[in-house]
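Hey, resending since the last one bounced:
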Amino acid sequence: MMAINALTRVSVTRRPQVRLVIAGTARSGQPLDSNGPMLRALIERDGGVVTEAALAQAFAVGADIVMIAGGTGHGAHDRSAAALAATGSLAIHGVALIPGETAGFGRTAAGTPVMMMPGMPAACLWNYELFAGRAIRRLAGQHPELPYHSGTVTTARKIVSPIGMTEIRAIRRRVDATIEPVGSFAEVGLMAAVAADGFVIVPAASEGYPAGAAVNAYFYEADFDDAQRIRAAPHDRGAS
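The structure tokens again:
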């Protein structure tokens, strides 16, 4: 056998260490962890390694990014922003995003980036995808853009959005390949995603899109047409 002694240099990227803190509480005062499973899955999808901590240990050294879900509003029990301001620096508290206006950003005393997301699941999801996820993907050596299939499509019906706020609007793709809006995340939360095939991002300077407009849309399935055929197959078999 021939021995091969060649040496090859390869680039290696260390997976970012993400400290995840679930800070929200239910009305009963008990810890609320509805966002934990979702965020853990998203962080791992984007190449991060998750460790969990309580709010009291959130700002200790040892993480590349600190991510806090919940406690970012203005209620008596929303203490995340105050805790960060007291121990580090709070640079931003509040963004023009629907859903997710109460997001915040800052750094610990040691300079570690801190990203705070609202406790409502839909708001938490889109703050992660648009802000926290970009940072994790970049640190993990991945492309920072949204990890969804996208393309230019035509609106079948008008999509309405308030001016001055960037809004994530759930959409459904019709059989003629046009799209139409479904219930908004702001109104029905994550249930909007159940009836949706994807979403569009309406910029803050826009009041929406008229029917017949060409817009950029993101789809949850990489190949929408194949996914449609797979979903339709059981019904087809039952009718035969």
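Residues 169 and 209 are 11 Å apart (CA to CA).

Sorry for the duplicate.
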